[in-house]
Amino acid sequence: MELLNENLWMTEEDNIVTIGLTPELQDEAGDISYANIASLGNIDVDDTIINVEASKAAIEIPSPIQGKVIERNEEAEDTPSLLNSSDTENNWIVKIQK
User: Fold this and answer.
1) Using 50, 70 and 90 to split pLDDT, how confident is the model at 97?
2) How is 71-96 classified by DSSP, letter by letter?
3) pLDDT score for 15
4) pLDDT tens track for 22-71
5) Strands 48-54, 41-43: parallel, antiparallel or unpaired by DSSP?
6) How would DSSP label each residue in 9-58?
7) Among 34, 61, 93, 98, which one has the highest count of C-beta atoms within 10 angstroms of its own C-beta?
8) Residue 21: phi, psi to the nearest 5?
């Protein structure tokens, strides 16, 4: 796992990049109660990959890479508290094909 910045982590396998929220962002934002994740399809650097509303802040997070969103964590949109987890199986946001 690679930390992109204080907000995001990234793993890459077979040109598929999985991006998720770091514990630092979770601490800064507080308990996440709302998440709006980018739609499937092309995404450019700095396009929004997620908007979150939490107990301490509302945050818009830009994409660190360009590619095609091929999978979204829809379960996290339905249950935003999953993004508060330290488990990368739960707190991932999108999978982007480079």
Assistant:
1) very high
2) EE-HHHHHSGGGGG-S-TTTSEEEEE
3) 96
4) 988 888 889 999 999 999 999 999 999 999 999 998 999 999 999 999 99
5) unpaired
6) EEEEETTEEEEEE-HHHHHHH-SEEEEEEPPSEEE-TTSEEEEEEESS-E
7) 93
8) -90, 135
- pLDDT at position 20: 95
CA-CA-CA-CA torsion for 86, 88, 94, 98, nearest 10 degrees? Answer: 130
Q: Distance of CA 4 to CAs 10, 21, 75, 76, Å?
A: 7, 10, 23, 21
**Token pair 């995001």 in the structure block, residue:** 8
68-80 as b/e: b if 16+ CB within 10 A: ebeebbeebbeeb
Tokens 């979204």 belong to residue:
72
User: What does the alpha-carbon distance between residue 95 and residue 29 come to, in Å, rounded to a whole number?
Assistant: 22
Residue 17, token pair as written in the block: 């990049």
